[in-house]
Amino acid sequence: MSTLNRARIVAAAVDLIEREGADAISMRRIAAELGVGVMSLYNHVPNKSALLDGVAEAVLSEIEFTDDPSAHWTDRVRIQARAFRQIAHHYPRSTMVVVSRQLRSPAGMLPAERALATLRDAGFEGGEAVRMLRMFIAYIVGSLLREVGVTPTFAPVRPDAPVAEADPALFPELSARAQELGACDHEAEFEFGLELLVQAMAVRLGERGLSGHETA
Amino acid sequence: MSTLNRARIVAAAVDLIEREGADAISMRRIAAELGVGVMSLYNHVPNKSALLDGVAEAVLSEIEFTDDPSAHWTDRVRIQARAFRQIAHHYPRSTMVVVSRQLRSPAGMLPAERALATLRDAGFEGGEAVRMLRMFIAYIVGSLLREVGVTPTFAPVRPDAPVAEADPALFPELSARAQELGACDHEAEFEFGLELLVQAMAVRLGERGLSGHETA
DNA sequence: CCCGTCTACGTACACCGTACGTACGTCACC
DNA sequence: GGTGACGTACGTACGGTGTACGTAGACGGG
């Protein structure tokens, strides 16, 4: 009812993606959602790609980064990683567009800025801090894509169909592990890798055993 | 010229993707590439989605998995990870479709089967082996997506434009690290994370320091 | 009053995936 | 040698897509 603007369009796009999936999104659908003609959107958004950038930006800027510089760096890393994973919970179907559009805007840069600050405080100097950052991003992106179903979990195809899925002769390991492969507790999986990475980083700093948490 | 079949269609699709990118692919373009009518494709492929599965399968089945069960498990892990990364080199623009289609076919299962076998030989029992596998896949997928440009490297936008990109006041860390962020040697980055993960796994096994390679 | 600017909108074009109907070449069987 | 069934290739058509372009109305300043 109120006047059209970029924020309303982006919000409608996010809603639509979450309701019907990223594939279902189209300029026509969004316009219909807003009760507006298709071409009216182009008064506020140059094209669909820019709109998706807006979606990524909107989702990304909702991440709560509460960084406490006085905390131990391992906990700061954990908190930042978990904050990023929130998007996979709040906006699961938007996750793919968030991670696949590289933003130059503040919202897109802030997570990296925070992470680099933490890594510097932890004691990593320039080159190594950047490598750590990139490794962490790779792990988080890969984890989120699994969590939202883009990437496989290797769960035997149907949740039903007792256990047997793959031919045990061809795939003995997969068959033997069908039990564990069948369930995928995304939070537990994420925490497992996170802990492993944090410990690996601590080792790299020569601080073995100081990470502050025992692993499950 | 020879008769149409699924393999020829898939091959044409892979070629087209590599030449013009995954977005440029369409049934009409593929048909034109093969010099046939669009609908002729549907005699051999039920729909576009199945065709993309075929693309993923074709690319995946070209990975060379030369697993030497007598080698140290750390080297086996390294070799398998690198083998997987080959696809990002040989078929960069197909990488996204490879990682985003979950295949139930042998070609799709084999890498996981091999990895689980290696992890078992290394001494990881059921549940932990599966978690290690998933963590490794997450890291590799995330790394490949960065390598093929889906995900950001945080390189200051243009390779030119000396160094300054972000506002140093807002993003002091990013600005200070602009040098290191500007360059992204994908092989070195991949190896860095790989080594970190392998060492973390070794620590988990209580085998500290036996990983067999020093890191750069 | 008039004119420039901005917003909303309709139409149109090129392209997409694919359902459907059809024509034709090949082979089995009588 | 028919002759029918079948599989492959193909054309047409429908409903969808992103968006270029032209138009019409609202609004504010001279």
UniProtKB/TrEMBL annotation, chains A, B:
DNA-binding residues: 26-45
An example of a Pfam family matching this protein is TetR_N
Give the superkingdom in one word: Bacteria
Q: Where is the HTH tetR-type domain?
A: 3-63
Q: Does the keyword Transcription regulation apply?
A: yes
Which PROSITE patterns does the UniProt record give? HTH_TETR_2
* Keyword list, A-Z: DNA-binding, Repressor, Transcription, Transcription regulation
PANTHER family assigned: HTH-TYPE TRANSCRIPTIONAL REGULATOR RUTR, TRANSCRIPTIONAL REGULATORY PROTEIN
- This chain belongs to which protein, by name? TetR/AcrR family transcriptional regulator C-terminal domain-containing protein
Write down the species: Microtetraspora glauca
